[in-house]
Amino acid sequence: MKTIFQIILWIACIGLGYLIYRSVTGPIEFKKIKQERFDKVISVLKDIRNSQEAYKTVNGKFANDFNSLIAFVDTGKYTITQRRDSSYMEFDKTYGIDLLQEVTIIDTLGFIAIKDSLFKGDTRYKSMMNVPYAQNNQTFEMKADIIEKSGYKAPVFEVKVKKDIILYDQPKDLLARENVQISVEEVNGTEIKVGSLSEVSTNGNWPPIYDKKGDQ
Fold this sequence. Notes:
Blueprint: H1 2-59, H2 66-75, E1 77-92, E2 97-113, H3 114-119, E3 141-149, E4 152-162, H4 163-166, H5 172-179, E5 191-195, H6 208-212
Antiparallel strand pairs: 1-2, 3-4, 4-5
């Protein structure tokens, strides 16, 4: 009986020790996994933002779906122009003399493919709708709109994904804590997103440290 009690006590001690170990290492491992996955997700969101900004430059608005955005990146081109000032003399009937006229001339120098400008031969833009690490092949949620701000209409867009999708396999208690995160050094809220449907902004909701790691 004494031996059985000792075995049970030994097992209990091991179990308690494991729980203590996990309580210490669990958050550390969670943070490591979270940062690795957030890095990748934010990198893709930056690609989407760059593509959307190029789309707006050419089309005057943002793309509302990934098929349109990807097709644009794949086939679209920037027009390369050069502005130069010029002048000429023109007879003025009012004054009866030649007057100097100044004009700005815009020359078209050529074209450059959007995909070459943004991705330099990399084809990752073709799969930028896919959420990295997602268990069930989820895609980013993207919407575009036109809103009125300060008396003028402005195009806006927003792309987002829930943290639950990115961290689907992590401990529920740590994930719940992450979703109510409030810190200037963290991605606050339940989602990682870029852009806004209510404000004229193409910023992401991630802290500056993620930008310092380098843009794609």
